[in-house]
Amino acid sequence: MDNEVKSEIRREVISWIKTVIFAVLFAVCINHFVIVNAKVPTGSMMDNIMPNDRIVAFRLSYTFSVPRRFDVVVFRYPDDRTQLYVKRVIGLPGETVTIRQGKVYINNSEAPLSDDFVREPPKEENFGPYQVPPDSYFMMGDNRNTSLDSRWWRNTYVIKTDILGKVLLKYYPGFKILFNQ
User: Fold this and answer.
1) Integer Cα distance of 91 and 95 in angstroms
2) At a CB cut-off of 8 Å and minimum separation 6, what does 11 contact?
3) Catalytic residue among 15, 39, 61, 87
4) Is 87 a residue of the active site?
5) How far is CA 114 from the centre of its chain?
6) Which residues lie across from 86 on neighbouring strands?
7) How many CB atoms lie within 10 A of CB 31?
8) How far is the C-alpha of 18 from the C-alpha of 133, rounded, in Å?
9) Side-chain half-sphere of 98: how many Cα atoms within 13 Å?
10) Measured distance CA(9)–CA(7) in Å, rounded
11) Other C-beta atoms lying within 10 Å of the C-beta of residue 144
């Protein structure tokens, strides 16, 4: 093999190595700054998100806005910030959340929140009132009867800086857009 052929092979190998390194760095940056890729281990969000579903959340959703009621978000669990949880935003900063006979009431309203996304009728339990602090949120799972959520945590509220992103889609098993942006 002459030097020209060896040089061409070397250039091709270096080109492939550069491409692979760029792709890996690009994927790491996207995963660290743009999306949250998570596996949901429990059934607390059934039937929207099932156990072992893999989901993608958009990290930039709340860069110029705040979470809204009923957004489904990925956040750091307040009692162990090394764990990621997926729940639905129920109580907003400054609101009072009360649960009477399984129904959620905001600021002592006469009518409960619409909860057509809830899997089954919740147990007729009473909780609260919870006064949501500034920059914090009260979270609940859609499968209310089995969800470990704000009602049960030692640190009841999720602070805004611990919300990593808004859930957009499920990609395994099967692809499904879950929530509109």
Assistant:
1) 6
2) none
3) 87
4) yes
5) 21
6) 74
7) 13
8) 49
9) 12
10) 5
11) 21
Q: Look at the block and give the residue holding tokens 């799972």.
A: 141
Q: Mind listing the pLDDT tens digit for each residue in 1-16?
A: 677 878 888 888 888 9
Rounded CA separation 6/49 (Å): 54
Parallel, antiparallel, or unpaired: how do β-strands 72-76 and 84-91 relate?
A: antiparallel
Report the alpha-carbon distance of residue 3 to residue 57 in Å, rounded: 51
pLDDT tens digits for range 68-107:
999 999 999 999 999 999 999 999 999 999 999 999 999 9
| pLDDT-based confidence at residue 180 (cuts at 50, 70, 90) | low
* Set 15, 18, 39, 44: catalytic member: 44
Angle at the Cα of 50 from the Cα atoms of 117 and 126, rounded to 5 degrees? 45
Q: Which two tokens stand for residue 133?
A: 């602090």
CATH numbers and ranges of domains, the chain: 34-177 (2.10.109.10)
Q: Indicate if the alpha-carbon torsion angle 54, 60, 63, 66 is positive or negative.
A: negative
Report the DSSP beta bridge partners of residue 180. none
Degrees to nearest 5, angle at CA 12 with 7 and 14:
95
- Token readout for 71 is 């957004």
What are the tokens at 86? 């997926």
DSSP annotation of 61: G
The tally of CA atoms less than 13 A away on the side-chain side of residue 169 is 8
What would the two tokens of residue 16 be?
């492939």
